[in-house]
Structures are given as structure tokens and as C-alpha cells.
Design a protein that fits this description.
10 helices, disordered N terminus, 9-stranded mixed β-sheet, globular, alpha/beta, single chain
Length: 371
């Protein structure tokens, strides 16, 4: 018997054409984003297909996918720890406001988890009545997203607000729940949980279209955005900027093994920062995932049929299609195309071109067709 979550997912598949713009033609400027280079088109990287149940049987039809999807979610939450109950209507306190360009910026204090509030939060609201699409922007600090810090290429919230999106820029939130000493879930999952509550906050605003909320982040924020969008179905789409789409212990910045991501050991001394070695081994949920042969293709499969874009740089190079092809296969089984995209730049830092590509992606899937 399918769980309630599996039934919800089946319903979302039925209404996906309405929510994700199936009737809207793909903008020619982003058509190539969905096409892997020919040398990687049929490469699956030797990773286990998410279209196989835990017992090894294959998912043969779209009707079977919700059951398999629920199996993946259950396994990952068992490894990372269960989320606290989601906050359907987070408390919001307006601290200050400022008129900027063609939008108003509000400094907020918000309820981000049970008995936890954050004030490194800015809400940017375009002129007009709406309802507007919205994007949650996550990073180390919120002012980078608003264009008021020394990271000019990370001003995603500012640039999207100018394009008619409500944006919520969030940074500096807590990593340990309920605290570091008694931590009950892996920090990266806790960040995703807090993002889910931020999504609910946006959906509660009467000038936001609650079915058109995306999430975006770069590097640390890219990991955060990926886990948030994959684990919380109310995000309609996601853009993940060079956070690392596969576990890769040869790349120092693809560091999911660190205690502040997936390597936390409750009640114990934490591993030293740095690469995995015999002297500094894997720990926490990450260790269990590697031992069980799990990798991020399972997590990414949870997005289907919701679209996502990997804005790849130094870590997510074109050959990472060998991971993304698994999500492509899931979408194909469900009857969807143009749901998995990747762009590439040379270096880790975002560029004007890579940012423009991300904004066009959001306009494709969150804005209605032009009249």
C-alpha cells in the first residue's frame, strides 16, 4: 500500500503540466542546457540506477515510481535523521524596509525552526500586485544575495527581484538541531529543513504564487539548495551552482564528508577538516552512505518531474552528466523531457553569463507564457 507521501507525489505528476509549464515552449536561449554532450549522453557513471527497488527489481512503469521514490526518501531520512515537524506558518517580524530600484527590500526576523529564529534575512518585493513567482536564495550571508556585500556575482536575490520575482535571501542560519551537543540530524539536512520552512513562509504571502517557488544557491549554498529542493516537494524547481552533484573524494570542495554537511557524529569528537584519508576517515551519515553504495543520483531523482539546473563550474564539469542522466531516465519514465539541465563555466565563481543562464531558467519554469 502506498504511503500518503507517495500518493501526493502521484498527484503532483498528474498536475505537473500546469505547475511546471509543460505547455510553454522552451526558450531557444536555454534549449541546449538540457542536452548532454554526445560523449556523455549514455554514460551513467557506474552508479546504481534509482529505478531499481532496494530488492533489485526494476521500476517498470510510472505508476511504480511513487513507491520507489518513497523508498529512497525513507532511506535517506533514516541516515540523516528525521526532520522536526514543518512550520506551516512561520512567524515573521519586519525590522526595516528600504526602497531599491523597482522593488522594496525588507529586513526580517523569521521563525526558521522550532524555538529558533534568524534575522540574517531579507525579503525583496517587486512593484505591483502580483501574484509573483518567488525564489529562495541561500548562502553564508544574506547580504551577498541582495547585492550588498563583496561577492558581486552572488547577488541572485537582487537580480531576480529586478526581473519581477519575490526573493527571500537567507544566510547565517543554525547548523545543528536542537544544538551541537544533542544534534539529532545531519547539518545539511537541517539546512534543507529550514529552507522548507522558508518556502512555506513565501507561500503564505498573498502576493506570491505558492506553486511557483524556486530555490538557488552557490557552492555551500548550492549543496543547501540541492538538498532543500530534492527533499521538499513544494519547491517547483531549483538551481544548484557548483556545489558538487556527486560524492567525489578526489575534489576537496566536494566535501560532503565534513561534519557541517553529512559527516557529523552525534556525541563524539568530530573529524578534522580536510580530505578523507586513512588517518582522517569518513564519519557520520556520509560514511554509512558510502558503505551502502549510495550517492547523490538517488537524491536528485526525487526532483522528478520538477526541473533543475546545475550551474557547473570548477567542480561540476560536463562529465557530471554521467550522474544527471539518472534523473533524465526517471523523467523519461514519467513522460517528461527538458527537466534536467546543466551549464558550464571554467571556474568555481559564478559569472555574468552563468547567472543570466540561471535567471532564464527560472523565467522558463516559474513565469507564465507571454500573452
Amino acid at each position: 500500500m502506498r504511503t500518503l507521501h507517495a500518493l501526493t507525489m502521484l498527484l503532483s505528476m498528474l498536475v505537473a503540466p500546469l505547475l511546471f509549464g509543460e505547455e510553454k515552449e522552451i526558450d531557444p536561449r536555454i534549449e541546449t542546457f538540457f542536452q548532454p554532450p554526445s560523449e556523455f549522453a549514455n554514460d551513467f557513471g557506474g552508479l546504481r540506477s534509482p529505478l531499481k527497488f532496494e530488492d533489485g527489481t526494476e521500476v517498470a512503469t510510472a505508476d511504480e515510481w511513487p513507491q520507489r521514490r518513497d523508498e529512497i526518501r525513507k532511506a535517506w531520512f533514516e541516515l540523516m535523521g528525521p526532520w522536526p515537524e514543518l512550520i506551516e506558518k512561520p512567524e515573521v517580524e519586519y525590522l526595516d524596509k528600504e526602497a531599491r530600484d523597482n522593488f522594496t527590500e525588507y529586513h526580517l526576523r523569521i521563525e526558521i525552526a522550532p524555538k529558533r529564529k534568524a534575522d540574517d534575512v531579507y525579503l525583496l518585493v517587486p512593484e505591483g500586485k502580483g501574484p509573483f513567482p518567488a525564489v529562495l536564495v541561500v548562502f553564508y550571508d544574506a547580504k551577498s544575495g541582495t547585492g550588498q556585500n563583496d561577492r558581486p556575482m552572488c547577488d541572485f536575490a537582487y537580480q531576480l527581484a529586478k526581473r519581477g520575482f519575490v526573493t527571500l535571501s537567507v544566510g547565517g542560519v543554525q547548523k545543528y538541531y536542537p544544538n551541537e551537543k544533542e544534534c539529532q540530524l545531519q547539518p545539511l539536512s537541517y539546512l534543507a529543513y529550514q529552507a522548507a520552512n522558508c518556502c512555506n513562509l513565501l507561500a503564505n504571502l498573498d502576493y506570491v504564487d505558492g506553486n511557483k517557488i524556486g530555490v538557488m544557491g552557490h557552492s555551500y549554498g548550492g549543496k543547501w539548495a540541492m538538498f532543500a529542493s530534492c527533499l521538499y516537494d513544494k519547491f517547483a524547481c531549483g538551481v544548484w551552482s557548483d556545489g558538487g552533484v556527486v560524492f567525489d573524494e578526489k575534489r576537496a570542495n566536494v566535501n560532503y564528508w565534513e561534519p557541517w554537511y553529512l559527516g557529523f557524529e552525534p556525541g563524539q569528537a568530530q573529524r578534522k577538516e580536510g580530505m578523507v584519508t586513512e588517518q582522517n576517515p569518513r564519519t557520520g551519515a556520509y560514511k554509512k552512505m558510502i558503505e551502502a553504495g549510495r550517492n547523490l543520483q538517488e537524491l536528485q531523482a526525487l526532483m522528478a518531474p520538477r526541473p533543475f539546473l546545475v550551474s557547473g563550474g570548477g567542480e561540476d564539469r560536463p562529465h557530471r552528466w554521467n550522474v544527471l542522466n539518472h534523473a533524465v531516465a526517471v523523467n523519461k519514465l514519467l513522460g517528461f523531457e527538458n527537466r534536467v539541465a546543466m551549464t558550464n563555466r571554467q571556474d568555481h565563481r559564478p559569472t555574468p553569463e552563468s547567472n543570466e543562464q540561471a535567471y532564464l531558467f527560472f523565467e522558463q519554469f516559474l513565469k507564465p507564457p507571454a500573452p
